[in-house]
């Protein structure tokens, strides 16, 4: 693995020497979608196997990691020679039950053409007959010098024949599924489709009686399950599909054929029901883990029993081989976009650097490639706007500033607003108030100020923990965890107090489980009446033993703290290797690794009372060397 230090500026010798190329334009992009999928080797392998055996697949994973790409790739692997055309014929015996014809792809069009020729011939013969009769009447009338009578008689005969003229006996079938000239099995994305679009429908006809209406067979519309016959039917977020529709989907999957009927009960289409229409598709369902909750159990068990379930990766190891794949990814995205210039080698390296940052953990590269593709396009647009020959590092850096996600923009606004209204401070000391850190969305950090107040318990039996809002549960848990520690080591019994916890102006989308260390600090400060240094912000999850456990999104949190003017940030020691903050923040903020609550208090508490509390704790630590409150490390 090349010694690529992401925390330093990209320079020549740090640029991954992955391939001999000048710009991404020199990189070959594979033709097949399946070969373009990066970092999901197991999933690709499974899909290859599933395609061979025509098995259904359930893909579970984060958004934008390549689920729909895999489904498309699978369609490419299915044999196109099996494709069929499907025709709907009128049923002379039962108009409401149109007949279905299936033939190899390409033949359907010829059949319809033959029928049209026949129908046209029949129509022409009928018209000739009518013209002959009318001409005869007119000739006889003229010969008998009865002009008016002849014209009237011709008119009456014309109308009578028109009225009596039987409907053409040759009714042209409708080409329901046309696979003519298709060189790949169909890929049909049925995400969010309603029942009619998915299962087929029969259109309403207001003139259904009296012979004026459109024949039933012409009103039959194929559903996506039929269009996906011999190909792939892809349904993302399958759990949000109505249960009844999922049930019907399962039936179609098992039977491999499904009758088409009008989906609306009040429509005349509901009276029509076609013969069974083939729908021999492979289902590729996808979504995140929550999707399983909304999934019909029988459908899930069908896939489990007769198919494959795949959990997609959201990051890959940071190896030279995998960085190579990201080079290919950049080339692919540029080619797919078709309008932006190619990337210089250094600009590609900057994208790889961003992939490392976005992975949020040590030695990893993100596989949330839809988002990374967004950065590629944004940088490309900037370069194109400047009429540059290729995209440079500066273009990528500018794109990172400009193409901020919604969550990043919300996070920025939060910082500005909270600063303006002084919801948090970045200097001085305050009792019971802590600058916690949280993440919104994927990786955007925000300051989440937490305030605690301790008052003697109102109830005689036991004090209460009063914490409201979405994060209340986390606060209660954190206080419960810390209560044993506090009692044992400071002598203060939390149960004698009512503890109020408030997340100041917290945002609903915040992931809060990493706030427990901050909550505990706020509570200790409030109970002991010792101020907390407001130039410090912290994140970490607290165990009941007082250990600080790792959390997610440390890079985003540290950057948010630096942005907010905080000078020191405490993060779990085990997260240190996940830190990949941008160069511009490096001198602004000190990052301190913490392992236990003692260290947290050592770095956060300030002023009067701190020394005596720490001394008290130190004594106990000396007595219990491997206890919960270990000796604070010196940093
Ligand atoms: N593993 C990957 N390899 C290459 N490109 C990828 C990969 N994952 C995502 N992409 C890029 O991101 C785009 C979106 O990916 P895709 O639609 O397959 O994601 P998804 O997992 O289906 O997401 P969602 O569930 O939100 O639809 C792709 O068109 C491709 O440009």
From TrEMBL:
GO CC term (a single one): plasma membrane
Major localization listed first in the record, in broad terms: membrane
Name of the top EC class for this enzyme: hydrolase
Catalytic site: 514, 557
Keyword Transmembrane helix: yes
Record domain Lon proteolytic: where: 428-607
Keywords annotated in UniProt: ATP-binding, Cell membrane, Hydrolase, Membrane, Nucleotide-binding, Protease, Serine protease, Transmembrane, Transmembrane helix
GO molecular function, one term: serine-type endopeptidase activity
Transmembrane segments: 128-161
Pfam families, alphabetized: Lon_C (PF05362), LonB_AAA-LID (PF20436), Mg_chelatase (PF01078), Sigma54_activat (PF00158)
InterPro entries: AAA+_ATPase, Lon_arc, Lon_proteolytic, Lon_Prtase, LonB_AAA-LID, Mg_chelatse_chII-like_cat_dom, P-loop_NTPase, Ribosomal_Su5_D2-typ_SF
Regions annotated as coiled coil: none
All residue ranges annotated as the Sigma-54 factor interaction domain in the record: 159-304
Alphabetical GO biological process terms: protein catabolic process; proteolysis; regulation of DNA-templated transcription
Tagged with keyword Transmembrane: yes
Top-rank taxon: Archaea
Its membrane topology: Multi-pass membrane protein
Region described as Disordered: spans on this chain: 1-24
EC number of the protein: 3.4.21.-
Protein's cellular compartments: Cell membrane
Task performed by this protein: ATP-dependent serine protease that mediates the selective degradation of mutant and abnormal proteins as well as certain short-lived regulatory proteins. Degrades polypeptides processively.
Oligomeric form and interacting partners: Homohexamer. Organized in a ring with a central cavity.
Family: Belongs to the peptidase S16 family. Archaeal LonB subfamily.
Name this polypeptide is given: Archaeal Lon protease
Organism in which the protein naturally occurs: Methanobacterium formicicum (strain DSM 3637 / PP1)
């Amino acid at each position: 693995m090349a010694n690529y230090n992401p925390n330093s500026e990209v320079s020549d010798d740090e640029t991954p020497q992955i391939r001999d190329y000048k710009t991404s334009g020199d990189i070959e992009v594979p033709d097949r979608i399946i070969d373009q999928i990066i970092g999901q080797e197991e999933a690709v392998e499974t899909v290859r196997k599933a395609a061979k055996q025509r098995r259904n697949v359930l893909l579970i994973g984060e958004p934008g990691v390549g689920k729909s790409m895999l489904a498309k790739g699978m369609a490419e692997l299915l044999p196109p020679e099996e494709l069929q055309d499907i025709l709907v014929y009128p049923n002379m015996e039962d108009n409401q039950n149109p007949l279905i014809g299936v033939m190899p792809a390409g033949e359907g069009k010829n059949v319809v053409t033959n029928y049209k020729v026949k129908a046209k011939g029949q129509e022409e013969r009928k018209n000739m007959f009518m013209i002959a009769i009318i001409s005869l009447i007119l000739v006889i009338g003229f010969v008998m010098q009865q002009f008016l009578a002849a014209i009237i008689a011709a008119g009456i005969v014309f109308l009578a024949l028109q009225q009596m003229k039987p409907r053409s006996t040759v009714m042209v079938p409708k080409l329901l599924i046309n696979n003519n000239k298709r060189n790949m099995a169909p890929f049909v994305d049925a995400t969010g489709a309603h029942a009619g679009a998915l299962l087929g429908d029969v259109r309403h006809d207001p003139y259904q009686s009296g012979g004026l209406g459109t024949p039933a067979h012409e009103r039959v519309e194929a559903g996506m399950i039929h269009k996906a016959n011999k190909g792939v039917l892809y349904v993302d977020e399958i759990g949000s599909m109505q249960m009844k529709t999922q049930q019907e989907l399962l039936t179609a999957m098992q039977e491999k054929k499904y009758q088409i009927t009008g989906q609306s009960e009040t429509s005349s289409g509901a009276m029509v029901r076609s013969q069974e229409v083939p729908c021999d598709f492979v289902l590729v369902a996808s979504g995140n883990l929550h999707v399983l909750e909304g999934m019909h159990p029988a459908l899930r068990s069908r896939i489990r029993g007769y198919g494959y379930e795949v959990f997609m990766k959201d990051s890959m190891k940071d190896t030279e081989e995998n960085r190579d794949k990201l080079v290919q990814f950049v080339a692919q995205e540029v080619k797919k976009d078709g309008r932006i210039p190619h990337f210089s080698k250094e600009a590609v390296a900057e994208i790889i650097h961003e992939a490392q940052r976005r992975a949020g953990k040590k030695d990893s590269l993100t596989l949330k490639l839809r988002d990374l593709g967004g950065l590629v396009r944004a940088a490309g647009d900037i370069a194109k706007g400047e009429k540059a020959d290729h995209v440079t590092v500066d273009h990528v850096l500018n794109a990172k500033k400009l193409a901020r996600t919604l969550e990043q923009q919300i996070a920025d606004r939060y910082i500005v607003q909270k600063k303006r209204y002084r919801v948090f401070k970045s200097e001085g000391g305050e009792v019971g108030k802590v600058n916690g850190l949280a993440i919104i969305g994927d990786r955007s950090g925000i300051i989440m100020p937490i305030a605690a107040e301790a008052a003697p318990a109102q109830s005689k039996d036991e004090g209460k923990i009063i914490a409201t809002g979405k994060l209340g549960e986390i606060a209660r848990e954190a206080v419960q965890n810390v209560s044993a520690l506090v009692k044992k080591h400071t002598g203060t019994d939390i149960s004698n107090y009512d503890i109020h916890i408030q997340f100041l102006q917290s945002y609903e989308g915040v992931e809060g489980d990493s706030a427990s260390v901050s909550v505990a600090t706020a509570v200790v400060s409030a109970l002991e009446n010792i101020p907390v240094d407001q130039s410090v912000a912290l994140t970490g999850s607290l165990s009941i033993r007082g250990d600080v456990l790792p959390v997610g999104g440390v890079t985003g949190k540290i950057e948010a703290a630096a942005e907010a003017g905080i000078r020191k940030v405490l993060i779990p020691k085990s997260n240190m290797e996940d830190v990949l903050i941008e160069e511009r923040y490096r001198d602004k903020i000190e990052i301190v690794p913490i392992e236990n609550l003692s260290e947290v208090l050592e770095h956060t508490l300030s002023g009067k009372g701190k020394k005596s509390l720490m001394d008290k704790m130190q004594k106990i630590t000396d007595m219990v060397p491997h206890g919960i409150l270990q000796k604070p490390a010196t940093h």
